[in-house]
């Protein structure tokens, strides 16, 4: 079981509160987590990653186990604590401004 924490605006869009729990079939990677998240909550398609390229949107970041995973390969394995359900994968809306 993978635990995912979404930013508030995506929780509102998906009509969920708190964490989302996902069952994955296969190795736990960012790509598989996002595939499962979008399959379960189709209204999130295109909000976290681009529809066509499936690349992470510029102002979305991924964190787990106090590490920024945003620039890791989408096919890299997630940290063991995330895979074991001990730690959640955090999807965070990045802030920008001057």
Descriptive notes:
This protein is an alpha+beta fold. It has one domain (2-93): Beta-grasp domain (Ubiquitin-like (UB roll), Roll), CATH 3.10.20.30. It has three helices and five strands. The chain has helices at residues 8-14, 30-40, 80-83; strands spanning 2-5, 19-22, 60-64, 67-68, 89-93. The protein has a five-stranded mixed sheet with strand order 2-1-5-3-4, with helices on one face. The longest helix is centred in the middle third of the chain and has 11 residues, at 30-40. The model has no long low-confidence stretch (mean pLDDT 93).
At CATH level 3, the topology is: Ubiquitin-like (UB roll)
- The total number of structural domains is 1
Q: pLDDT average, as an integer?
A: 93
Beta percentage is 15-25%
SS field, number of helical segments: 3
Radius of gyration: 13 Å
Which geometry do the CA atoms define?
Answer: globular
Say which CATH homologous superfamily is assigned.
Beta-grasp domain
Helical fraction: 10-25%
DSSP strand count: 5
Biggest sheet, spatial arrangement of strands: 2-1-5-3-4
H/E series, N to C? EHEHEEHE
Largest sheet: 5 strands, mixed
Can you tell me the CATH class?
Alpha Beta
Low-confidence stretches: none
The CATH architecture would be Roll
What's the gist of this structure?
This protein is an alpha+beta fold.
What tags apply to this protein structure?
5 strands, 98 residues, alpha+beta, five-stranded mixed sheet, 3 helices, Ubiquitin-like (UB roll)
What's the helix and strand layout?
Elements: E1 2-5, H1 8-14, E2 19-22, H2 30-40, E3 60-64, E4 67-68, H3 80-83, E5 89-93
Parallel strand pairs: 1-5
Antiparallel strand pairs: 1-2, 3-4, 3-5
């Amino acid at each position: 079981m993978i635990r995912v924490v979404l930013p508030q605006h995506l929780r509102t869009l998906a009509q969920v509160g708190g964490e989302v729990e996902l069952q994955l079939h296969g190795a736990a990677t960012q790509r598989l987590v996002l595939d499962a998240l979008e399959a379960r909550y189709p209204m999130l398609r295109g909000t976290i990653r681009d529809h066509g390229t499936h690349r992470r949107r510029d102002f979305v970041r991924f964190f787990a186990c106090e590490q920024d995973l945003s620039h890791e390969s989408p096919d890299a394995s997630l940290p063991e604590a995330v895979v074991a359900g001990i730690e959640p994968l955090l999807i965070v809306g990045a802030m920008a401004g001057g």
